Amino acid sequence: MIRLTDQEFLTIVNYVKNNYGINLSNKRQLIEARMYSVLAEKGMKSFSEYMTLIQQKNPEEIIVLLNKLTTNHTYFMREPAHFDFIKTKFLPLQERVNHRKLVRIWSAGCSSGEEAYTTCMVLMDYFSLGRPGWDFRILATDISEKAMSAGKAAIYSAESLKNVPQSWLTRYFVKQGTDQYRINDDVRRHVTFQRLNLMQPFPPMQQFDLIFCRNVMIYFDQNDRNKLINKYYDMLIPGGFLLIGHSETIQRDSSKFIYLEPSVYQKG
Ligand SMILES: C[S@@+](CC[C@H](N)C(=O)[O-])C[C@H]1O[C@@H](n2cnc3c(N)ncnc32)[C@H](O)[C@@H]1O
């Protein structure tokens, strides 16, 4: 075991917090335990050596650490109340007010893409029912390159699809081998994956009608959460929606969002 000194621990915590917003201050043992194999593989004798590599040569290396210390866990139809909201409230509203017939959705912190693809299937179901002429695009972003590759490959295990109805398996997936399914091209063409660090200024993007940021801000401190929520406010069209995880909240006095129902907020 390679021990983390107090100074090394502080360096890692500050670096990750300042660059990625993620708070590792109570993860000292986890860092030691999970990073041991990474350091050993590189023949390193201390965490200082590792941080020098990250800070001077290869910031992408830190993603390995982040992947080990945060969770990318997700699955299709997670927190289904949001998909009911989209089907019964958001989409009927779009039909009334969205004269461009173009719906733009952002799944921020999408992990391997299950949230984005679930949303896409809800929209495909809805617009295929005698509602011609609609276009929709879903941007799916995450800090993890590995998650982005998985999202683009779009191959999922039966376990991740346990809540997906049989009709969707038939309509939107192609079976691969015994227990894997690939999203078909009709669905995939609506979804774009892009690596994006939510702590950095956002690249130029058009505004969205709806943004998901579910189970991502749990890693951030309150100040970074507030800043990010205000950035989302600017990225939404007036009347657009922000959906956060059901265990998360937005402080009423820290943003201009209007609370609509649990974990659903609207730009006034
Ligand atoms: C638990 S997953 C949530 C996936 C999905 N939104 C859901 O609710 O099922 C959290 C994701 O947030 C991503 N993440 C953490 N910090 C991030 C940052 N600074 N920028 C972008 N993504 C980040 C992680 O890589 C991870 O894939």
Could you explain the architecture of this structure?
This protein is of the alpha/beta class and 268 residues long. 43% of the residues lie in helices and 20% in strands. The protein contains 10 helices and 10 strands. It has helices at 6-20, 28-41, 47-57, 61-69, 81-97, 114-128, 145-153, 166-172, 185-188, 222-235; strands at residues 102-108, 135-142, 155-157, 173-176, 180-183, 191-195, 208-213, 236-244, 258-261, 264-266. The strands form 2 sheets. The chain has a 7-stranded mixed β-sheet. The protein has a 3-stranded antiparallel β-sheet with strand order 3-5-4. Strand 4 and strand 5 (180-183) form a beta hairpin. The longest helix has 17 residues, at 81-97. It starts with 5 loop residues before the first helix and ends with a strand. The model has no long low-confidence stretch (mean pLDDT 93). The structure holds S-adenosylmethionine (SAM). S-adenosylmethionine (SAM) is lined by residues 20-22, 70-74, 78, 109-111, 115, 142-144, 147, 197-199, 214-216, 219, 245.
